[in-house]
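Worked example 4.2. Below are the chains of a multi-component assembly; read each line carefully before continuing.
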Amino acid sequence: MFKKVLISNRGEIAVRVIRTLRELGVKSVAVYSEADRSSLHVRLADEAVCIGPAMARESYLSIPAIIAAAKATGADAIHPGYGFLSENADFSAACRDNNITFIGPSPKSIQQLGHKSEARKMAVKAGIAVTPGTKECVGKDFRKDAEKVGFPLMIKAAAGGGGKGIRIVREASQLVNEMNMAQSESKAAFGNDEVYFEKYIELPRHIEVQFARDSHGNVVAFPERDCSIQRRHQKLVEESPSPAVNKKLREGLEEAAVKLAEAANYIGVGTVEFLLTQTGEFYFMEVNTRLQVEHPVTEFITGFDLVREQLLSASGEKLSYTGGHTVPYRGHSIEHRINAEDFSKNFAPSVGRIEEWIVPGGPGVRVDTHVYSGYNLPVYYDSMLAKLIVWAPNRAEAVDRSRRALEDFKVTGVKTTVDAHKLIIDSPDFQAGKTDTGFMERLLAPAQPVGAK
Amino acid sequence: MDVKTLTKMTKWMETTDLEEITWRSGDDKISLKLNSNPEHNSSITSTLEPVLAPSIGIFRFARPGKTNHLREGASVKTGAELGVIEVGKDFKTVAAPSNGLLKIISIQDGKPVEYGQPLFFIEPK
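Applying the procedure described above to all two chains together yields the following structure tokens:
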């Protein structure tokens, strides 16, 4: 096991990683930008180093600054968290070149699986169904490619992720315009204007399978997570297991994830995302080569600590479970992402000083956060304040527990999305487990009299 | 009340969290008030201007193969290179922010520095 691990991230995930490191007796190093001097991860870590100004490009995204911090503090490994440099092959390579272990997959795995069209090829090779679409990035003949795939289709940025760089084209007449937009967006966001086409599946569910694999060849796939509740491709609520997945389907999903992990000779934890159609077919979508925001729901129903599994596999040890490709689970878990956004004003960002911060607790409740009362919310980073995760023996009780925990959540100083989550929880469709990626749009649409349109 | 008793009383007060006491004996009355925030009453003002590290990295007085005989008391000009920060393969200039006298060098050659760490203090002219 490592002696000292630097976390090249901020916010709740940095705090989350420090907690597991402490349990394992591994020293932690926090890095922070000038804007994060008073953030919780700085206070909890054994050491903390200021690596740059507030702009992420010059701090949390600066490979030289983070490597310099690791060398100055003598860290033997770097945990990248999620976002920032977590899926950056150059960063993984820079760590390797400086004799620092990157707690994540090899540069090669990141390139293979992080590049979406490369990942699709690998999935096809491993025998996993993919959504119909172009196998390669599209070039000059994109009109012909689009006709072949058929409308509606999605234009996706090859280097995209987190819901960014996706445009939906409903008919041929919009294609050229949308194509130009998608390419310039992708260029601006990822420095690369390569895009590809994929058939757009109406109202699918977003299902994903967490897997972990060590260098000894042990691989485990965890029960699926359902992340269908999204707003503008950003996940709001995640749950595990999915109310739409039965035992047979689960086995199919888990088997696909195991195959892919083995085909890529992947070391570490990762997630395969699938689209599940209303009729129960699943298609490979993409692989996330990192720990995910929603990993706690898996931890709650299986009892695993996924950060620990990351540390074990990265340090060359065996996973904590080597008895087979699947693990048993118990009960149901739901996660709510609480953001600093004004729900009543179309989720406009809210900034300021957190005055009152009272988080829920009690049986089956976990809150992962870097926020405390008196904390000044920096404007430079994402708006997530906390993740509220609940567990109960079954889904109906988990929903009740969510409602109770959301009632207990008291925040003043900034606006939060707590009320949006209450609305979700109280929706009969959510309670019945009838969710798909169009759920939020329908929930937030102003009520219209029948036949008004 | 004599000075000795007063001294004893103030000493005792310092061991408690009392800020003020009033003591009466016949027509005599004495009030003692402790100055509990002495740091607020003495402000340290400095005319020295700090020179902050522009990057995390290793501080060097000079680029490889060069020398730099910087000494405390030397006069420096705006923009003069006081040293460099080695970060990866890059060297970032630590430049004097103003004309003045280099009063304090608070860094040693080859030491790791954080972003924003004070490396020098200059008395502007």
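Take a moment to check your reading of the output against the notes. Chain A touches chain B at residues 34, 49-53, 59, 63-65, 67-69, 71-72 (CB under 8 Å). Chain A has a mean pLDDT of 94.
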